[in-house]
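Most newcomers find our protein records easier to grasp once they have seen one. Sequence and backbone structure share a record, each on its own labelled line. Nothing more is needed to start thinking about how sequence determines fold. As an example, a complete record with its sequence and its structure tokens follows.
=====
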Amino acid sequence: MTKRRATRISTFGSQLTAIVSVTLVLLILGILAVIGMAGRSGADALKSNLGFIVKLERNVTDQNINRLKQLFNTAPYVGSYVYSSAEDILAAESQYLGEDIASLLDVNPYGAEFDVKVSPTYACVDSIDALAIVLGADDAVESVLTESTMIAAVNSTLGRASWILLAIAAALLVISVILINNTVHLAVYSRRFVIHTMKLVGATGGFIRRPFVLTGAFNGLISAVIASALLIAMLAYGANIDPFIGACFSWQSCAMVMCLMIVVGVVICTLASLFATNRYLRADYDDMFMK
């Protein structure tokens, strides 16, 4: 009776250890995935603020202005734009300088302009420079001002950050697979004599594998659900502390991450249980005393 009780405690303890270990590993992977998606959203938001300024001729007609507005409304490369008339720019500059520029010069030195923000797909130096050349050839356009140096610096920084984050994610994924495999292997190791006993009474390999594989899949599912719940709690707590944190994360992307955590947890635990069970199915009795 005492031995049976000790065996039950050992089995329960090994399963609990496996669930806790896999939960922590999946939680770390989930946090990294959410940070990666938030970084991607932030990069798209940053790229959406890149663009160029189209300065119009001073004698531009309303027809040409409306034509350009229609062009920017339908062009796929335009994320958003703001039109400022010559009077709007004059008023803004006069307010900034604290003096009435029109009274000093007796003329409005400014012309109308479009402040165009490109879509993230076109937020690169080559695309913006090509668009500037095309728009600069328009008769209603005086010049197109771009910030190629800043755009190149932004894209270079985002590219390096993406590669660094990808390398960290790959390293953590490999470490996670190894840790989960070792954890599941230890859980199966605690029941290796059960496997050997079932072999002695004539149980088939499939019959022996089935409970271990199902247990592994169940442990992976429970671990992923717990990790998802912890991740939701962390994100909700962070959003409650600072609204900016909540704005960085999309709940749709978080739901995708949680579904991915469930798939990864179930698949890795199932495969690890299958490999560990097969190892002890092929082992002799003497090998049962070896890890």
About this structure: Confidence is low (pLDDT under 50) at residues 1-9. The chain has two domains: 2-45+154-289, 51-146.
